[in-house]
Amino acid sequence: MGLFDKKYCDICGEKIGLLGNRKLEDGNLCKDCARKLSPFFSDRRNSTVEEIKQQLAYREENERRLADFRPDSIFGESEKVYVDSAAAKFIVTSASNWRNANPDLISFSQVTGVNTDIHENKTEIYYEDEEGNSKSYNPRRYECDYEFNVTILVDSPWFDKIELELSDGNRPDSPYTDLYRHYEEQMHTLSDLLRGAHNSGGQGTGSLAAPRTREEEIGADFTGNSTWICPSCGSRNSGKFCENCGAPRA
Asked: pTM here?
């Protein structure tokens, strides 16, 4: 086939325009279908057409599940973490209208770890001497700002981590400011919340714990549908997708 032969999306069947092709391991993907994938997904080139179809089916189910998401806590500035503590779920998104953006809905029990880091950015300040040359002060002077970075490790078929900066767009310039202490508290609170949920078997900590339903307690399905065990995380489910990690029913 020639370089400029017409290509068609192996997902939706539509013709792919010039520069619009997104290569898959065994096929082609149009840019419109690519936009529907998880924003945290980064292995598109090594994915098969069937794997992309499975992920898009999961994304459709994710959009339906978001209807019941009721966040009661928000962390971050530009990119935010919205937490529904009663349901023990969270999303991460920079979209102002997050429902339309369809962010991945993640259960606390999918969190396998949380890494935090406060990074100092330091830039030296110079002055000009009488000849117009830049000179260092003695002692040297610096301008600083501080990044509060969080990496959430996730058990998901589609991605394994989410990286964000809580202070993006509003970094403090000193460790001795209220803004610095604000982000420090946010970072530790979010980390403790997600780590606590993981360490206690996904049930949260204190008042943030999500109560187990009777169906969960006895492992039965009261909807009349047959239950199945997720091969990815081992949880019991009754729908088309795992309620814990989002994997499709085999």
From this structure: 0.73
